[in-house]
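WARN no homologs supplied; continuing
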Amino acid sequence: MYSQPRNRGLQLVSMTAGAVLACAIAGANVASANTEQTLHVFCTESNCGDGETPRDGLLADQSGNLYGTTEFGGKYNKGLVFKLIPNAKKTKYTEHILKNFCAKAGCPDGAYPDSELIMDVNGNLYGTTEGGGKHADGAVFKMTPGANGWTISIIHSFCGSPPDCPDGGVPYVGLAYAGQASGAPWDGTSPLFGTTSEGGAQNKGIVYELSSGSSGWTTKVLHSFNPSGGVESAYPGPLLVDSSGNLLGVTFLGGANGAGALYRLAAGTWKETTLHNFCAELDCTDGNGGMGRLAMDAAGNIFGVAIDGGSGSNCPEPNGCGVVFERAATGKYRVIYDFCSKANCRDGIEPAAGLFLDAGGNLLGTTHIGGTANLGTVFMLTSGSKWTEQVLHNFCSEQMCHDGAAPVAPVIVDAHGNIYGTASETGADGGGTVFELTP
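OK structure emitted
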């Protein structure tokens, strides 16, 4: 079994260091002025027993509790699942560790969780790990609350037929389901969908379906990516399930230009249609390297990010500083924001996490670097005659970066417009933070 996740370099390819569900949270219109509060600092315990490096977004329940994962730290240094419980006034949050991964030799219970969590109508949690499982190539897990704490069960262990791994391997994104974008919890009966970064017919990743029935869970491969096929893609990110049951996503590589693609799998047949090949324009001004979860508005317009490319006038990077794009329901593709358009890249560089669409039609996200300290931002795009970007928070604004740095996860927004997210690095103890931005 490998000692650390295998795809982290791919995910953060040019960095210097799947919108996440918010259960029962519709997302208010976000105000422009925000105050940052650090809700939890990781690595406060010896050997980072409370977790280290939160790379993924948060899940919120109806009581305002926040759930998430850290890729490292924990009792066995293979990551954990945590829950942050607020006091009555929500002025202080207390961390509860729900699961330390790799409790047994060989990590059959999984290792290195690296996905946002989802919750079903009964309060059970679901997620994925990059490593561990029966075959050491990752797993899908379920966690069930009980009187004596939470219990974990493995729904599926990837790479059941090594070395070919037709069922996929190394899932580094979470699960998707119909209705997820509305904030509703999973109904427990409809299919779950996900992607893996390896395995499949060409070892370039797959799209899979999980179904729960009276005889247990079944796994089905819906699509194997094949970058040699011209229109096909490689290294898929998180999925979005639209109102018709189609699956939408982006890939980091592959496509006609080798720079990734925006694609759709038609419900039922699962036939792939490429909606846009990145780097179709000279110097990749249309974006290069699709990453993160997509957002879709009521009209069927799709929004997402590419980590590189674009035409930011102040971008110092030879491959570009990233874009936010729109693929209209009519089929027209356009870039709606180029990062590093402001002096000294105060508007951010490298959006890698995907987007959250709030009730007012604003798009919110994070950049891994850029901003006033070049350690990342939380940003908002507001539509009008053109889309306007505003930085809501510059990371490392506090002394010694106590507010965190290098966010690589999307944010969630509650009904009052409060924004919640994670920063993967620093904080008072160096292991990353959970933060809140309050209007």
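The first helix runs from residue 8 to 11.
OK
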